[in-house]
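Example (one chain per record):
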Amino acid sequence: MFTPTTALRLLDTPLESDYRNTLWFPNREAQTAYFLGRTIKTYENFQYIKKNNTIVVDGEVDLLYNCNYIMYQNNNFTNKWFYAFIDRIEWASNSSVRLYVSTDVIQTWFFDITYYDSYVDRCHSDTDVAGDNIVPEDFSSSSGMGYFQVGSQDMTPDFITVFATSSPTGAPNNGTLENGIFSGAGKLISVSISNIATLKDHLDNYVKQGTATAVSRIQQSPLNRPKSVSFAKHPAHLDCISSTGITTYIPNNKKLLSGAFLTAYVQMYGQEMTFNPEGINGSNISLQIGVDETSGTIGVIVNNYSNNNIAALALTAVIPECTWAYNQYKNDFNLHAGSNAIYNRRASIERSTARNTAALKTAIAGVEAAGTTASQFSTFNLARLALGGVGGAIGGALNSASSIAQAGMNVYETAQQQKIYDYGVDDISQDLTYITESMTAPAVGGVASSNIYLATGKTALSYGFKVPPLDIVKRCDKFLTVYGYKQSEYRAINLHARASWTYIKTNGLNASGEFPDDDMNIIKRAFNNGIFFWVYTATYGNFEQNNAIV
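Predicted structure:
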């Protein structure tokens, strides 16, 4: 005769039949001991218990409402423990209770399942080093991005460079290579803005030689700056905008320190360049700074950038171009030094002619006042003197007026000299006219370029990361703590990646086991929906506890 020997335990556990949460055990012994420790009521030698059925047990219904789980062992057939949820409890009689149960397929077959590489949507990773997990998350973290400045480099343009097409003496510049580009305007001098006197002396040399127009460009640039700077592409913390200002935050999840969450930036003279730090080969972001004075630009190259097959990234900005003032009359006077000698001689003659003519007019006026030979001078004029008739007119009219005759001869001589020099100045008359017209305000060389960042003292090159505000960072950090990282790849199934709980969500679990297919289908649905595996401790369901990597 058959004697039932089934062992039944009614338990109080934290498990629920929706399979959102379950327990992880290192071995069967630990599993069995845990559930036995949750026993509320024990039944020995119970009749055979069928899977997913109803069970009637002795007891009062009000005393069993705290039971939500059973474990049983049909010892007539196997020593395996089966685990099931109590889905419903109802009164059967005053001394009996009916239990509706459904198998907990995960705990029942926990050590009978073989997992294969599967497409994992997200899970807790078994490593957490910044840069290891860089798959973008589904949530947006770009709202209200602030600047986490890691460092800066002073780029004040405190050097002035002069370019010219010739030397001060006029020797032409045959051309030079400036930063690999041919330029017909060679570099004359580079001086610090603290040494303006030296700069002025060099520019004055051009004016002294009449070659001021050879100065083609004056550029102000930061020539004395380092050529490169570098910083870690994964920071150790985040400086975030908060309600109280800038707050330093060390995230629990190192993914928040990677390009999946951060954007690297470089700023200079109002220009900005952003890029994914994960595109950098190596652990540091290296910036190379260059100045092209011939084009008036300053540039920054991000070295070792290979994302999307881009060899390098570049940022350029315009640096100030300067002007200078010089005496244009003095410059042109020196340029035309030969013709100026003739000009000065002519001026001297004109002054002598004026003086002698005035003396002659005075003598004539004295004779006319005395009534002597006044009529003979009525047709006398300066025009006839200029034509060479001075001697004849005076000789016939001033026999008794020797002073007048001498005065007339003086006028004649200066008039003859002026006629000679008139021929000499005809070919430089336009130069003389130009010189006269140029005696105006100083001329300006170069083209002024404005720069509001220089005017406000904001000339530093800054670099670092753009990060969300503190409240968003904290929310994202908490989400990653609970649900792990986005994976979106085929990988091994790890049910115990973290110390307290491990979350895993698949898209098509790949597994097998020697148990009914309907149970396997339930297991696959649980994984595809996302499930937490809690370590069998009293910390079940507590997301505030430490969840370090195992």
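Caption: DSSP finds twelve helices and 30 strands in the chain.
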